[in-house]
Design goal:
Layout: H1 11-20, H2 28-48, E1 58-62, E2 68-70, H3 71-85, E3 90-95, E4 113-121, E5 132-140, H4 151-154, E6 161-169, E7 173-179, E8 182-189, E9 194-199, E10 210-212, H5 223-234, E11 240-241, H6 247-257, E12 260-263, H7 276-289, E13 293-295, E14 315-318, H8 320-330
Parallel strand pairs: 3-4, 10-11, 10-12
Antiparallel strand pairs: 1-2, 4-5, 5-6, 6-7, 7-8, 8-9, 12-14, 13-14
One manganese (II) ion (MN) is lined by residues 118, 121, 247, 279.
């Protein structure tokens, strides 16, 4: 059921009002969302003090993707895992930073939800104080509650995402939540320590005139994509480019102002760079709830079934007509 919330509504009240109408509500989903709010506030506080709190820079380790791990990656990963494993709401937590899923220790209840996250997206922007974020998707487990999670709980297709969202740690901290077919954005008041509804019922226009892509790799794209982007530029329609290099920040700008984000396949990376479970699925779920679209070039992202925890996918996401035009160009 969709309902309108007024600007200024606290995240806490939004969660209460939203989850009480769920017929099978046990309180676990509300607790899960509240804990996401808590972990976001912890990470936000740390991000704001990054230069002072010894949080800049790399740890010297590489993660499962072979990428250099930043201190904030670890802090964010731990903050979300700690917030989510003890209240008995998660059966498993999947993270970009961990090779396998994290199951709650036996002393805690194994709850109803599987939480998939990129705890810190845009790591390369940490040291330059550019916007970074957290991205997450929530699935309902398939096996009975109270038992250890199974592979079928963890590797579900995108059609099974039940809620998703992200947090941007930028000039302000904003939590965007897609649940019950509606997208709402909440801005953190850092003094009060609470998120307030600032972007109610976000909707995307059918088309926009902004594209976001790393054009440094265009030599290596499918030539049809290169021709398509070239066509936009020459169209005289006023297309412009915006690219921060943090998916979550590029996506957020496009969600608010309109725009299409592309991370295509390249000859070097035929699967693209971005990860299906905790980057593409959550943002695809958000964009569709806002009236937009997400594709891998030939298929709707949410129709894809992940082959592994850290599977990658090309991603074209944003205003529906602009995504459809890219699909048509690649056909
Ligand atoms: P992460 O920091 O979680 O590893 O993700 C980085 C991703 C994504 O945020 C961004 O869109 C992309 O890397 C940028 O990649 P390029 O530098 O290849 O453009
Ligand atoms: Mn990422
Ligand atoms: Mn990351």
């Amino acid at each position: 059921m969709q309902r309108q919330f007024e600007e200024g509504t606290t995240l806490d009240r939004f969660i209460f009002e939203t989850t009480k109408t769920h017929a099978d509500a046990t309180g676990q989903f509300a607790t899960l969302l509240r804990q996401v709010g808590l972990a976001s506030r912890l990470v936000s506080a740390r991000v704001n003090r990054a230069g002072l709190a010894g949080m800049l820079g790399a740890t010297g380790e590489k993660n499962v993707q072979g990428e250099l791990v930043q201190k904030l990656d670890i802090y964010a990963n731990d903050a979300f895992k700690h917030a989510l494993e003890h209240p008995g709401v998660c059966a498993a937590i999947v993270s970009e930073e961990d090779e396998g899923p994290t199951l709650p220790p036996e002393r805690f209840h194994s709850g109803r939800y599987v939480f998939c996250m990129d705890p810190l997206d845009g790591s390369s922007n940490i040291d330059v104080n550019a916007t970074i974020g957290t991205i997450f998707a929530i699935f309902r487990r398939r096996s009975p509650e109270g038992t250890p999670a199974t592979p079928e709980d963890i590797l579900q297709p995108g059609t099974e995402v039940m809620a998703a969202g992200y947090v941007v740690y930028g000039s302000g901290t904003v939590l965007v939540l897609a649940v019950d077919g509606q997208v709402n954005g909440f801005t953190l008041d850092p003094v009060v320590g609470e998120f307030f509804l600032s972007h109610p019922d976000i909707r995307l226009a059918p088309s926009a005139k902004t594209y976001s892509v790393n054009e440094g790799y265009s030599y290596s794209w499918d030539p049809r994509l290169r021709a398509h982007i070239d066509g936009l530029k020459r169209s005289g329609d006023g297309w412009r480019a915006r690219y921060i290099g943090s998916l979550v920040a590029d996506f957020h700008r496009n969600l608010i102002k309109g725009g299409v984000f592309l991370y295509p396949a390249t000859q070097e990376n035929p699967e693209g760079k971005l990860r299906l479970l905790y980057e593409a699925f959550p943002l695809a779920f958000v964009v569709e709830a806002a009236g937009g679209a997400a594709s891998n070039g030939s298929q709707r992202i949410l129709d894809v079934a992940p082959s592994s925890l850290h599977a990658r996918t090309p991603l074209f996401i944003g205003n529906a007509e602009d995504v459809a035009d890219i699909e048509a160009a690649l056909r």
